[in-house]
Amino acid sequence: MSIQVLSPEVVDQIAAGEVVERPAHLVKELVENSIDAGATRVHVEFFDGGRIVKVIDNGKGMSPEDLPKALDRFATSKISKSDDLWSLKTFGFRGEALASISSVSKMTLTTRREGDEQAFQLVSLYGKKQPIDRVGGSQGTTVLMENLFENMPARLKFLKSDAAEHTAIKTTLKAMALAHFDVEFRIQENSKLVNFWPACKDRKERAEQILEIKPLFVGEASREYVKAYAVFADPHNVAKTAKNIWLFAQNRWIQDRSLQAAVNEAYRSLLMHGEFPIAAVWVETDPEYIDVNIHPTKSQVKFHDPSLAFRAVAGALRGTLEKAPWIQQSGQLRSQAQFGSAGGAVDYSDPAATYPSAKGLPNFATSENGAKVAQPEMPKENLAFQDSTFKTTQFQKKDFSFPTTSVQQPQMSYQTLAEAAESRQNFEMPAKAEVNSLNTETVAPVSGGYWSSLEVLGQANLTYIVTQHRDKMVFVDQHAAHERVAYEKLMNAWKGGKIDIQDFLFPLAIDMSPEKVEGLLLLAKDIERLGVFIEALGPGTVGVKAAPLFIKESVLGKVLDRMATEVVDQGGSYSLERAVGDICATMACHSVVRAGQALSIDQMKNLLREMDHFPLSSFCPHGRPVSVEYPFYKLEKDFGRIV
Ligand code: ADP
Ligand code: MG
Fold first, then answer.
1. Is residue 428 within 8 Å of 405, Cβ to Cβ?
2. Rounded to the nearest whole angstrom, what is the distance from the C-alpha of residue 287 to the centroid of ligand 1?
3. Which atom of ligand 1 is nearest to 77's Cα?
4. Does 282 score more than 60 pLDDT?
5. pLDDT tier, 377 (very low <50, low <70, confident <90, very high otherwise)
6. What residue spans of 140-295 are helical by DSSP H?
7. Interatomic CA distance for residues 562 and 559, integer angstroms
């Protein structure tokens, strides 16, 4: 066969393979056209696995002269010269979506401009335009696409199940709606209304609508010419996949591994393995620093400096996550939900003002009309959950030590502290280096912090600190809490280069693979900043000359091996920072109070007070929650006091 120039029809069909690989892609193109046309309402219907799609908008419409041109390849009203590509104000610019789609389907375009007396309609059969008709119709444009790929049976085979294609379409529409909070979306699947998203006042409100989580939190950050704005769920609300990380660049929905990693990075140490954040993130930059034209479906972009975008995104989320705004908020929201307007008079925003930590259980009663009203609090003496019994039995000893045998046999019953003190006798006495820092003297009281404001009632199962706060009971996992504190201390110490260390008279020998030994020694200087001083004792042995005071000697081997694995697996300074995080988490985990250890009221209060010193303290460094809440209304319900 000699070389021939392909006919326009074949060119369009080839292009269609790129632009409209699957129905969700063409839905995106059609909706973007509507938005480019200034629509404030977009109505999308789809049937039959997306082989029939109808998009109705109230945009500016087209003139009868432009109507046929809309279907021509590289015909666009949006740019005229190549420079325009770098200052795009519209989503479309390639002028090939309608040409491509219409070449592989039957397309009916109906359009009417403001001021025109009627609408004009153009039908195209697999790229062959029929004469224009005058029809009735309101302002805006309707694109009806039917018989997708009927002229290309090979492509039809590539479509997935109807359900899968519908899911992809709905996902795309969510993304479109997230990008355009001020546009109303109405979505029908197989003639059934499945979503109606009225226009919103801002991105946060739209995100709450689409992600169906409330409240979401907002963060912003800039790195040079890159700005990031993020709306996201607190770390209690997680997804099982990364699909709930929505990324937008210049308000275009994009897929971007690096930015996805940035979001995960921000949640680092807040989520457990297999948990993913729920977040929508918008990255904005000067148009000259971003190329949006590297992919036919425009789903990928290229940043001039990807690391700026990464840092802006991570910073936007982290800045808010570190303030853990959900902690205060949760009580507030629940209270409002519980009390309705009657409770509205109580100001929950300032815990100290209404419910100082010494106050007792708020008592709820039901008024005649059935609404819940808050009663004045009971005098403290009447409380069933009194802590005076605890006072007499709590430890006098403020020094506090590590158990070495406790975790294997957790006590299954709710113990009094007296019983706990008994069982504590069985614990081995720790070496000096194992004594941790829960001394009452060491912590300056912080007032106003959430954790300090919890009223400690006692310890349950030698594992949980039982507290109450305003309208709920809060159970704090003592190990997780202490782990978080130790972790933050370590991280701070590492950042500030200050850590209490202990020298060993003879270096502690730790055996590991030669490769790991080598890796560790290479980073000896960095590791020193963690307070661990090492030297080579042989090809397969590391000697520890000194280590932080709070790490038990018995776990040093485990910690160093873990450290070596991290160091071997990861290189570069950024990953060192991450490795340090992991290492600190491991060290923290092995150096703090375990479950199964009795704590005095003072020790528990101290631990909680220490929690207030650090941001992000509502999760342990492995992402497990530090506390769980049990609202009183749930208790009331369980007791049948309310229905
Ligand atoms: P592009 O969007 O890249 O310009 P398209 O093939 O998607 O290319 O659309 C071609 C042209 O058709 C657009 O430039 C626009 O002028 C017109 N058009 C398409 N859809 C609409 C619509 N919903 N409302 C008004 N004009 C439209
Ligand atoms: Mg377009």
1. yes
2. 22
3. 14
4. yes
5. very low
6. 153-156, 162-179, 203-211, 257-266
7. 5
